[in-house]
Amino acid sequence: MNNTIFTKINYYLICLLPALLLTGPLLNNLNISLISIFFIIDLIIKKKIKILFNKNFYYLLIIYLYFVLNSIFISENLSSIIKALAFIRFILLAYALNFYLRQFQKKILKIWKIIFFIVTFDIIFEYIFGYNILGFSAGYPGRIASFTNDELIIGGFYFGFIFLVLGSIKSDNKKLLIIFSIVFFIVAFLIGERSNFIKIFLMYFLFVVFFSNLSSILKATLVLMMFLSVLLIISSSTVFKGKYVQHIFLEKYSQKIYIPKTKLALLKHNKHFAHYYTSYLILKDNKIFGSGFRTFRYESFKEKYKIHKNLINTGSTHPHQLHFELLSDLGILGYFLVILNFLRVLLDKRKNEFNHLQTGSKLFLIASLIPILPGGSFFSTFNATIFWLNYAFLIYNKEHK
Known about the structure:
Elements: H1 5-15, H2 17-21, H3 25-46, H4 55-75, H5 78-86, H6 88-129, H7 154-168, H8 174-190, H9 194-211, H10 216-235, H11 238-249, H12 251-254, E1 256-258, E2 266-268, H13 271-285, H14 296-299, H15 322-347, H16 356-368, H17 381-391
Antiparallel strand pairs: 1-2
Helix pairs in contact: 1-3, 1-6, 3-6, 4-5, 4-15, 6-7, 6-17, 7-8, 7-9, 7-16, 7-17, 9-10, 9-16, 13-15, 15-16
């Protein structure tokens, strides 16, 4: 009886969040915006708006204000200003999820698990038949499209939800948990996204070694099984041999080129390294505040940042790496504001009501902070939704106690 119409609407919107995430930015943005707006209205009606008045929310507001001011005075670009102002929806999303999951945790997670299992089945289906249950195909050897079609971002979806799903499986049924862990791990590899799989691999490794209550022998056995299963799949597939052996260690990556007048004497012939180095050059010109909120898409195409004629794709919408994106767009000041918040949350030892989900989200954040490994834009709708969804399980709010 205490639930308003806005509570009920948000319950359904949150249940559908993973599914809408796969449809593209339009429906996902609409869903997030509605959840954020209805959440504020719901808090006002219930006279619980004070839930937002805590240190963590204030810290996030400081970061948000930096984004907005940076877009106004540094970017000087209308598109950047609009995107900076709209970023508040992700912060409110995290708090809305934290709030409603406390009330409907079992029901919401049950729906999320069903969606994740459907995606898992779809990935296996596409791997076997070459197209998913809707007829989508990647059109790229060794990659899986699944429901994201030509976007090829299903690996990011799997990376964001895999430990939330595992954490929601009853821990008292260890056999079931181990079976699902092995299946999800292999499916994550079959997707064919190297960077996301390495992050998932690290999450599994850290969980088995540091967070599980297994015996030392069983821990060593599971880690060994992880390595052997990956090696077995690679050795049995020509496509995976090309992706994980030839593509990384042989011809293309052995070609080194010189870049004059820089401390980097050698740079590998790779588009991601080219983006990284371009962001480094942008940072050199804009050390404190960066080039402006979400301006890499403009700055990287400027003539002065074309660092070598033989380097491919120096310009892009984003640097494809979290640290380089924050540094080039927001400068050293913005970078430390954001990173210190992540570290503050990671080092917070206080437990909330989410138990194993909290551990899974911490592992996700640790893996997200790995340097060098490429990834999607931190500010894009897809990646930001997944990030702040995991962040929601790390929020500690004494007002809920």
